[in-house]
Specification:
The strands form two sheets. This protein has a five-stranded parallel beta sheet, sandwiched between helices. A two-stranded antiparallel ribbon has the order 4-5. Helix 6 links the parallel strand 2 (150-155) and strand 3. The protein is globular, with a radius of gyration of 21 Å. The protein has helices at 11-36, 51-59, 79-86, 90-96, 129-144, 162-173, 193-196, 203-206, 221-239, 265-272, 276-286, 292-315; strands at 71-73, 150-155, 178-184, 187-188, 191-192, 212-217, 242-247. It is built from twelve helices and seven strands. The protein is α/β, with parallel strands linked by helices and 346 residues long.
Amino acid sequence: MALTAPPGFAPHDLAELYRYMFLTRTAEEHLERLHKNGHVAGSVYRSLGQEAGAVGAAWALRRSGAATGDWLAPSLRATGALMVFTDGVLDYFRQQLSRATGPTAGRESHIHWGDPARGLLGPIFPLGTMLEVMAGVTLSFRLRGEDRVGLVFTGDGAAATGAWHEGLCLAAAQACPLVLVLENNQFAFSTPTAVHTRVESFTEKAAGYGIGAESVDGTDVLAVVESVRAAADRAREGGGPQMVELRYFRRGGHAQHDAQEYVDPALIAEWEAKDPLAKYRARLLDQRWVGSEELAEIERVAEEACRLAVESALAEPEPDGPEAREDVYTDVTVREPWTRMDVPAS
């Protein structure tokens, strides 16, 4: 007999959270193999060990569409959030394989794509700038009196950029309904977090802007959902920006080419023992929220979905060269900005 689900969760929710986490890891494993076989142009950025944070944060939002739902801006490793907001893997593989059928029509790979119809705001670089962009989006929500929030992921390294602080300053001053999810995975590229900040927790930075903040175990998907859901409610009710720090560990290098030789193997092993999928799966079975047969079926379906998506994406065409010029430039003549004009003759 199943035990009572935690408050705020239905048994179906608990199974779905596991499905998205497992789908995220499975999709990235397929992508890693594709990269090794030469099918991916550029690097692959795994979210190994961080799946619970991305899935849980996205799950806590309202996903009703661009006109009514919340908006989300993922980060480099927030693959799980993409899975939740798009509920599929075909576009993910099309994008990563630079297919003409993909969200950006093959103009680039990786995560730089969005879907406004589903409230997905594609990330841009340099790091930290998406906080500024989401501050503007959520300011529009407040000015229009809309019952919506915007959630933006940033890494701990981005918190040292000027754009990050400028965006947070604006959002706080304007009481924007914004949720900042700060992924403290202990490394920015190869730089340990302790090297680029003196704070013990990034929530200490929130006090300087007068915003609410909470730090949670990023490997516990239910804790992440509860924290982000509460933060979104406070922001939605006029409480201004809210920060949720996710504490976990980047169990791979910065990208596929990074052997992570600068990390003590004992530290990696320590966090492997805290694997979010294994921990959550064991909890589901221990609490009898989801049975072993149902979990096995979830895993089988996710594996098959990824296999079919990879086969389909590989069979689809790559873009033709001239297509790179389409939907980029306008045929409307505009005046040349003064910054590009020749210096007037004296």
